[in-house]
Design brief:
It is built from ten helices and 13 strands. By secondary structure, the chain is α/β, with parallel strands linked by helices. It has two domains: about 190 residues, Rossmann fold, CATH 3.40.50.720; about 100 residues, UDP-galactose 4-epimerase, domain 1. The strands form four sheets. It has a seven-stranded parallel sheet with strand order 3-2-1-4-5-6-11, with helices on both faces. A two-stranded parallel sheet has the order 7-10. Helix 5 links the parallel strand 5 and strand 6. Bound molecules: nicotinamide-adenine-dinucleotide (NAD). Nicotinamide-adenine-dinucleotide binds next to helix 1, strand 2, helix 4, strand 5 and strand 7.
Length: about 300
């Protein structure tokens, strides 16, 4: 299969590309390297890297012309960046998605997988969060992710494009960039632990997230490429388990044998307190949830 992976040089995209290549697929990566890195990708004759932008309609059409399937991961993945620059991030996170869907419609692409986000639920009170839960996108990032998902539904109904939207919860693992205070909390914790620097926890540390190991997500996306029975599907990708930041700290310390110094500050405005995915749809569709235990995933991350 020839698979176009947008955002393939990024954290999640590089794991997905690696899996695809390992299984003998031809992979085209389209990435503008705004946060991704060329060196995240494995050297392989099966992989063709194209530095370019999903906002470029002509380039996107060229890439889709050669592809059997698209895994669309390219986005400005920082919620804070979308708050700082809604119009700029909208061009990548929404216009780029629409460019890809249009190019797929006009070419022979058979399958379209989309990285949506649990951010579209906002601060929900009832856990675990089901896909049917009222949506409450609170940031430009979440609004764009949800709009993209709605468009997938439209292209599935109108043109028969075999689409699936996956609402990722908190993905973690090697190659996640810890450089911004808004990066994935596990990458920041691991970075602080290894460098001996103090970590600031905003709030009491009892806030929870549903953490998914990136390798499990990559396996799931690759497996779902061949599915012909999922068009128009929408699905949470989580484990169905909550882990608090304090539990995470203990797990990291036990895996590494080091102590993480922490200080506590006021909760950040807009941060949600608890998060956990309902996984019934995932189990019904794939017969399983992401399985890597958190300590094993942390071991992989620490290297
Ligand atoms: N990491 C998570 O926990 C998480 C959770 C929910 C959703 N997601 C979504 O998963 C996807 C991958 O996220 P990630 O964590 O790997 O982030 P990332 O920043 O590592 O990857 C995004 C990639 O997209 C590229 N990119 C950005 N704008 C582009 C553009 N206009 N044209 C071409 N390439 C562009 C970047 O260079 C980068 O390589 C994103 O769509 C993100 O919104 C991630």
């Amino acid at each position: 299969m020839n698979v176009l992976v947008t955002g393939g040089a990024g954290f999640i995209g590089s794991h997905v590309s690696e899996r695809l290549v390992a299984l003998g697929n031809q992979v085209q990566v389209l990435d503008n390297l705004s946060t991704g890195k060329r060196e995240n990708l494995p050297p392989s004759e099966l992989l063709n890297f194209q530095e370019g932008d999903i906002r470029d309609q002509e380039l996107v059409a060229e890439c889709c012309d050669q592809a059997d399937a698209v895994i669309h991961l390219a986005a400005v993945a920082s919620v804070q960046a979308s708050v700082d620059d809604p119009a700029g991030t909208h061009q990548s996170n929404f216009d780029g998605t629409l460019n890809l869907l249009e190019a797929c419609r006009k070419s022979d692409v058979k399958r379209f997988l989309y990285a949506c986000s649990a951010a579209i639920y906002g601060d929900t009170e009832v856990l675990p969060v089901k896909e049917e839960t009222a949506l409450n996108p609170l940031t430009p990032y979440a609004v764009d992710k949800l709009s993209g998902e709605y468009y997938l539904g439209y292209y599935s109904r109108q043109y028969g494009l075999n689409t699936s939207s996956f609402r990722f919860f908190n993905i973690y693992g090697p190659r996640q960039d810890p450089s911004s205070p808004y990066s994935g909390v596990i990458s920041i914790m691991a970075d602080r632990l290894l460098s001996g620097r103090e970590m600031t926890i905003f709030g009491d540390g009892k806030q929870t997230r549903d953490f998914v190991y990136v390798g499990d997500l990559a396996d799931l996306l690759v497996e779902s490429l061949a599915r012909t029975d999922m068009s128009g599907s929408i699905m949470n990708v989580g484990t169905g388990k909550q882990t608090s930041l304090l539990d995470l700290k203990s797990a990291l310390e036990s895996v590494s044998g080091k102590t993480l110094k922490v200080s506590f500050d006021d909760p950040r405005k807009g941060d949600i307190k608890f998060s956990c995915a309902a996984v019934t749809r995932l189990v019904t569709c794939f017969g399983k949830v992401p399985t890597t235990p958190i300590k094993e995933g942390l071991r992989e991350l620490l290297g």
